[in-house]
Amino acid sequence: xxxxxxxxxxxxxxxxxxxxxxxxxxxxxxxxxxxxxxxxxxxxxxxxxxxxxxxxxxxxxxxxxxxxxxxxxxxxxxxxxxxxxxxxxxxxxxxxxxxxxxxxxxxxxxxxxxxxxxxxxxxxxxxxxxxxxxxxxxxxxxxxxxxxxxxxxxxxxxxxxxxxxxxxxxxxxxxxxxxxxxxxxxxxxxxxxxxxxxxxxxxxxxxxxxxxxxxxxxxxxxxxxxxxxxxxxxxxxxxxxxxxxxxxxxxxxxxxxxxxxxxxxxxxxxxxxxxxxxxxxxxxxxxxxxxxxxxxxxxxxxxxxxxxxxxxxxxxxxxxxxxxxxxxxxxxxxxxxxxxxxxxxxxxxxxxxxxxxxxxxxxxxxxxxxxxxxxxxxxxxxxxxxxxxxxxxxxxxxxxxxxxxxxx
Length: 408
Hints:
Layout: H1 9-12, E1 21-29, H2 35-46, E2 58-63, E3 69-70, E4 76-77, E5 89-94, H3 106-117, E6 121-124, H4 128-134, E7 142-143, H5 150-156, E8 161-162, E9 168-170, E10 174-177, H6 180-195, H7 197-207, H8 234-243, H9 251-257, H10 262-273, H11 277-295, H12 300-306, H13 312-323, H14 327-337, H15 340-349, E11 404-405
Parallel strand pairs: 1-2, 1-5, 5-6, 6-10, 7-8, 9-11
Antiparallel strand pairs: 3-4, 9-10
């Protein structure tokens, strides 16, 4: 059972070496990185808020390559420090990486490896996890990243135990977070680990964000798959599955359509998506149920049938395991949060309960390709439990505080 602790006994015993100081935080920036993600650790660790009861950190902004560094909107940044300044930091944060398909500079990877060897805490926010993985710092460890890129991370670095459901993962001396808003969650967690709940709460009030958020990324998982799958023969089978979720079929059916044995299909599917096909299929059915609960007046029994579940009981069980509530409670909470005007727009375009085509027969053309490399990922305030183990990737033990995984 995981819990909200600071580190495993092994990592807790590690000491900083040389000139490194615990209170010094180095933020490693690269050209092409998004300004929002980059600004999160700068705001959390670089502003003096001692008047509010928040202990002060010393911030070092370091360029991971030659500047000036271009960022969102064509802006140019000049980092006051280079890679050499990382040698003084007790914590090194990589807030983002410009491209999940490009290798980071080897000099930056060497600096991260050296910092880790000398006892520094290494943090990757959002796509920054790809930099940590390229440095070998995530090998054999649990990690997360934005849900859209989790399958690519799992495929490219198979020794990393990627869990796309978590807001952040604390593995002691190496920490990773999901998309934009989850970077704030992880930075607050670091402050809480270093200085306690009171300091983290004071900082959260200054930032006007919740000090802790329950839930994970599962509310935002969708049908998107890594771009690499588009050229694979398995893509046709995946597209067929997404278009026929209203039908009752199993993984054996998909394997047969791919002309593969079940064992070969499982292996190929996992290598492409980072997920077991059965759990991927269940998650897609639950996501379809979410959409129908949000945009239609179908009863729960009707939703179960239109999402390929064999019974309403099966829908309720999987729905609760992945989202932490019953379908009826989810619909009620969703509608209570929505302004009346938005609810009217939803129902205007929603299918009627009589004579409508089943889901998957309304023009869906197959897997959607993510449109942007660094999407924002705001998350709602309602409580949600972490998805069932293995829902979209290698299984990990459930968190004591859902959405926030810490070292056991």
